[in-house]
Amino acid sequence: MIAKLPGFGRPRILQFESALEYAFLCLMLIRDDIHHIWDQPPAIQFVGADGRPAKHVFDFLITLSSGKKIAIAIKPMNRVLSRNFMSELEHVTRSVPKQFADRVLLITDKQIDRRKAAVAARKLATLRPSLTGAAA
Fold first, then answer.
1. How far is 47 from 108, CA to CA, in rounded Å?
2. pLDDT one-digit tens code per residue, 99-124
3. Which of 44, 64, 71, 85 has its CA 20 to 30 A from that of 95?
């Protein structure tokens, strides 16, 4: 998806891996308080519940206009429950450096309003021709 935010020097492509991530991106890109979005930021090293080192890559790192950074993990609720993802995310959160993110947030399909996301996608589609030309 091509997007233009105040923190981008020019329009750029944002990657997403699922319909849930796409819906989330659409909702974020129409907000006035989003300064920057980094898709697939660098991995965070953490120690898992089993005591072994592991890595986690957040889906997005969002910087608000206020300067606050939020590391976003997006997962379907059934996956959160079936893989005990909350436990893993607790371990990851303890290892997130303050310079990387001020906060960690889990977003599931239960929090995303699909109707609002569809409206946001239509709004973004009207902007896309101008962004596509500027990104080329």
1. 24
2. 999 999 999 999 999 999 999 999 99
3. 64
